[in-house]
Write a structure and sequence with these properties.
By secondary structure, the protein is of the alpha+beta class. 22% of the residues lie in helices and 24% in strands. Residues 267-278 have low confidence and may be disordered.
């Protein structure tokens, strides 16, 4: 029995690598979260925008939101880890964009059984630079090249090195409080925000507990539903308060491990490139 998606919707996700829209937050909830994010945005940048759910209880609650987890469970099963999360924010009129890419390119995970829940905290539409997806492109990993473009919101500026048929692209239009699901290998990108409002999206990466890291680094992850019988990742504690000292220390250790995976061998001007704040 599925909890959120119908069996037909699960089959369609398997075929296309995409499902949207789904409702996570009601109007009052999303307004409160947007206000919270905008008030603390100066604190959520660079390293703190990697796994921010380890630093802020309100973000920890969001990655555990039951409506999101019900949808993800329908795709991945009952035992779920949050492997990572990140805000992708585009101010009005900002040139920031996301190149065509597949998420899994540098993640080092043992299988592409990864779902991203992309939660809109503000309107996400073609004018504001919403995500674009080419359905059905999630069957295999393709070659990527790193551009390190300053306007690219991806840390390495990674871009698909094969031709992308943009005529097949679907705009993932979301209202505040809605979310989409996309497969880790599906081709996706986004354009700059040409609207008069900030575009705020929160991408949460979920994996089933049998997934493991293959890059020679023992990472950590957050158990958000079910049980973790495999224990391929060290457990991550929920923060007791915003930027609690214990949370700051645990977050630093977790991000160091993830950076060791994500940027292995990737150097620009003799140093590792830090994560983009969006």
């Amino acid at each position: 029995m599925t909890k959120c998606l119908s069996p037909a919707e699960v089959r369609a996700y398997d075929e296309t690598g995409l499902h949207f829209p789904l409702r996570a937050l009601e109007r009052g909830e999303v307004a409160a979260l947007r206000a919270r994010y905008e008030a603390q945005r100066h604190l959520i940048k660079g390293r703190t925008n990697q796994k921010p759910h380890l630093l802020f209880p309100w973000i920890a609650d969001l990655v555990r939101h039951p409506r999101i987890l019900d949808a993800v469970e329908d795709v991945l099963g009952p035992n779920l880890l949050c492997w990572g999360a990140q805000f992708f924010t585009k101010p009005a009129g900002n040139p920031g964009f996301v190149s065509w890419h597949q998420d899994a390119t540098y993640w080092g995970l043992s299988a592409p059984e990864v779902v991203t829940a992309w939660v809109a905290l503000s309107p996400s539409n073609p004018r504001s630079g919403c995500m674009k997806v080419v359905p059905g492109t999630h069957r295999s990993q393709v070659q990527h090249e790193d551009s390190f473009s300053e306007a690219n919101l991806l840390t390495r500026g990674q871009e698909i090195a094969v031709e992308v048929d943009e005529t097949r692209a679907v705009c993932v239009t979301l209202e505040p409080g809605e979310f989409s699901l996309h497969h880790v290998l599906v081709f996706h990108a986004s354009e700059p925000n040409l609207s008069d409002d900030i575009r705020i999206g929160f991408a949460i990466r979920y994996v089933p507990t049998h997934i493991r890291q293959t890059a020679g680094v023992r990472e950590s992850a957050t158990l958000v539903r079910g049980v973790d019988e495999h224990r391929h990742f060290d457990p991550e504690p929920a923060p007791a308060a915003d930027l609690h000292p214990d949370a700051v220390a645990a977050h630093a250790a977790a991000v160091d491990k993830q950076i060791a995976v994500l940027y292995a061998g990737a150097r620009q001007r003799g140093r590792l490139q830090e994560p983009a704040a969006g």
